[in-house]
Each structure stands twice: as C-alpha cells, then as structure tokens.
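Predicting holo structure, AR6 bound.
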Amino acid sequence: MTARIDAVRGDITQSDCDAIVNAANSGLMGGGGVDGAIHRAAGPELLQHCRDLKAHYPCGFPVGAAAAIPGCALKARWVIQTVGPNRHRGETDPADLAACFANSLDEAVRVGARSVAFPAISAGVFGWDGDEVARIAVDAVRRSPVLGRLDLVQFVLFSDELLAKFQRALSTR
Ligand code: AR6
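Done. Tokens:
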C-alpha cells in the first residue's frame, strides 16, 4: 500500500491530518502567510517549541530541512517546520524546494504520523510560481521512499487558482 495523494482548497490550520507542514523562515519565530496562521491557531506555546528548535540552529534553520514540533492547540499532533527557498534572494534551485517536501515526509514518518498536510511552500512571500511549486511538490512526494508508511499526503491550498495548479500536476504522470 502507498499513501493517497490529493489536493483540497482550505485552511491548513483546520486540517485533520496528523502532521501539518509550516512554510517558515530560517529564524523560526513566526511570520506572515501560513506561518502566521499556524502560530495564531496553535497558540503561544508553539513559539516556545520554536525557540527550543532554534537553539539547535544558531546560524538559522537551513533551507530544505524539516523538523517536527508539537501541534499544541491544533488538531494536528505535529507541526513540521520547513523553510522553502526564497526566490527574491536568488534561491532558485528546484532541489531545495523538493527537499522541503521530501524531508518533511521523512520527519513525519520518524514521529509516527500517518497523514501529512502541505501548503504551497514558497508560493507566497518567497515568490515562486505556483505551477512550478505544484510540479516540484507532486514529483517530490511521489518519489518519497517513505510513502508506503503513510496513509495520506494532502496539499491544502488557499485559493481555487492554486488548487487547479496542484490538480493539474496530480493528473500528470
Ligand atoms: N492554509 C493554507 N495555505 C495558506 C494559509 C493557510 N491558512 N495561509 C496562507 N497560505 P507563504 P512562503 C498559502 O507566504 O512563500 C512567512 O512570513 C499562501 O496563500 O505563507 O514559503 C514565513 O515566516 C501561499 O499560497 O509562504 C516566511 O518568512 C502559501 O500558503 C515566508 O512567509 C505559501 O505562502 C515564507 O514564504
């Protein structure tokens, strides 16, 4: 058996998945976009877990890395922190974005999650094209060696436009 991979429109903070992935920044102290929404919904306790994680990364959390912290007030049991490449800073390597998805799935399996929800990492403030994010995300998830240890990988998109892009990527083999 391998995980079902799908895409829905919605707010990832309301996801029923065991783990939700946060598109954070290397400072890990919260921000706008999905990061801000997750911090608001999870409550202030999340920030303390972020501080503990940050203490291990004095030079900043690396682009493409992933680490799970407790979901606090969220339905999700874990928030997996990852940092996408920032196109506005010249971070244009698709491998860095693919690493966010692949490493987040590895981390989800490591903590025992069976279902994982992803936002469109780097498709907001970090300036990547939505179609490109969708293609890279779907490809990285399909290639993941841990897919057989998960039941569901769900992309949760904030707009119909982005949902259509992910649906297109999912319909292409
Ligand atoms: N649920 C699902 N998707 C959402 C939600 C939500 N509640 N809110 C926003 N999105 P962004 P990035 C979508 O900018 O490009 C932050 O300040 C949003 O519409 O959140 O990786 C961090 O602290 C977009 O499609 O993440 C970093 O500094 C997608 O999530 C920086 O932004 C990603 O947009 C990271 O930028």
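The chain has a mean pLDDT of 98.
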